[in-house]
Amino acid sequence: MPSSSDPEIPKTVIGALFLLLRELLPHKPSTVAAMLDTLGVGKSQCYELKERLRETLPELLHSPGRPSVRPEREAELATLKACYAYTTVHLGAVRVNHSRRQYSDGFRNFMIDLVAPGGPAESLSLECLAELADVPLGTLKSWLAVPARKPPTPEHAEPTTTKAGPDDGQAGGDQAATPIWLTESALSAQVKTILTVWPSWEGTFMAFCQAMSTDFRIQRGPTFIGNILQVAGLRERQPRKSKEAPWSRGAFRTHFPGAQWLGDGTSLAIVWNGKRYIFNIETLLDAASNAVVGFAVTDSESADALGQAFDSSLETTHGIAPLAVTLDNKPCNTCEAAAAAVGGAIVLLGTPGRGQSKAALEGAFGLFAQAMPVLAVEGGSDREMARSALRLVLTAWHRGRNGRPRKRFQGKSPAQVFLESCPTHEDTEAFIRWAQELWRQQEAYRRTREARLDPQRLETLRIGLLDLAIPDPDDRLAKALARFCRDSISRGLATFESKRDNGTVPPEAHRQGAYLGGIIANLHTRLELERFAVHLMKQRLRARDLTLEPLARMAAELRANASNQEQKPGLVKAFLQRALEAPYKIDFLFWAKATTDTLVSLPESVRAVLCETLVRRVAKAFATDRDRRADLIDRLVSCVVLSPVLTTAT
What we know:
Elements: H1 11-24, H2 32-39, H3 43-60, H4 71-89, E1 94-97, E2 100-103, H5 105-115, H6 126-133, H7 137-144, H8 189-197, H9 205-214, H10 222-231, E3 260-272, E4 275-286, E5 292-298, H11 303-316, E6 324-327, H12 331-334, H13 336-341, E7 346-349, H14 359-371, E8 376-377, H15 383-402, H16 414-419, H17 425-451, H18 455-467, H19 476-481, H20 486-501, H21 509-542, H22 549-561, H23 568-580, H24 585-600, H25 604-619, H26 626-641, H27 644-649
Parallel strand pairs: 3-6, 3-8, 6-7
Antiparallel strand pairs: 1-2, 3-4, 4-5
Helix pairs in contact: 1-2, 1-3, 4-6, 18-20, 20-21, 21-24, 23-24, 23-25, 24-26, 25-26
């Protein structure tokens, strides 16, 4: 009997069922009229409903068991389950901040593995995968794009750390835990929550702070949360670098006024009647008295500009010429015309890349920029009128500066110190000997550097500069760059070409040579340090150093778990992930070498397919230093392009 809670079936439906059963049964029941009279329903409705039931009945009958699922549907369900499982376990992997989504490196690697050979989404289209994972199609395509072998390297390396930046802090992995020395009585509920959630967090540090505020109701700022994590040993802040090395302070040596002048040029703009003109200000400054002795306003920095500034200085010093003049290493200062422009004084070249060699003059340029307003003159538009006005302004400022008393000179001005100076004969002879010895050392260094130039490096640079359309008359630039190692030259030329394709190279032709030189010099320094770290790692491995012994033990455990050939690709990924997360340089080199050694041992067909997936993971690991990513990509591609013997030797 049906219960009172069951829905009531209309009598017409029952009558239609009786009619249908009467036709289907081999033995007919009683008459139709008597049956319908018993129910109290009409014939027409029951006969009409009977025909509808007859048409519907085949659709209600199916074979036993569950209906089969399409292969595409199975892949979609597996992908949805995998995405749900990952985002549930890894908090902060996907974060929405002001309608803008942020994804962790682990989530990017997870999406790359989904479409890798054997992954659940291997057969799905990118459009379908983007819809299932709720990731914009353009973003997903950028993750799965294979980058070039050597991505552009910046001219100056950006100092970053894997887990220390204020905006890019990452979780320390499963190894982070609440310290034992933090007792339950000393921890508040907020501190407990922070220390509990952070080890499993994979987003950025700022996203973690926002999650603490919005999801966990912890109204604390990034400074408080960062202090808690740093005290607990779960995160380290990036230390600020000193602007100047402590050993470089006070390294500049001064003698007596009139002994040494410093010369340099700087660009200065003046607006005249709505038009902007740029001039070069060639300035000479006395190193001992800190007095600006002369200047010249020219169109560009050249030997002629130096001569004009020197003649102006002689008028200021009443014809007293210096014994030596320090200039930078620009070609206009190293030619014979520059030596003739200073009237026979000893020309000393400043140390490349060391602003301390002309610190007093650079400071004078800075004081001028701070003291003077924007030079905007209204009136005529003639260029010579603008030059004359600029000369008057500079004259007034330099005279005021030279006449200002200084504490270091016991209340005297730089002009007074220069004019009242009376060096002895012994002081003059001592300075001349010092300047000549410095000049002799510079000449010996120049001759030694030219003697060590490698013909192969010179030829490589000549061909490279010709291909890049960088002018190099008399092979001056090629000789200057040939002193760097071959790897830095090759990678520097490739980096410059990549940056030029991306439009990040200065358009001026005369600046491209200096830009290329900076790239090669930085690469040379970085490669030298990396090779030093490799040799140091070998020595430590021999001595079973405490730093590398845990790494070697961990690598041995991973290799033991991947005994057969089918598990080797997973082992390569595990080594690569530890290289990306390595906090120290020597750890990175250890895991990078373990990655390439294992990858080389795989068959060539498997190696090529796996390398593409690995390169994608490295390129999208934005929390890792850019130079490390470039090094890893170079190592991985070399394992496919080069022979195993050559790769292992490298």
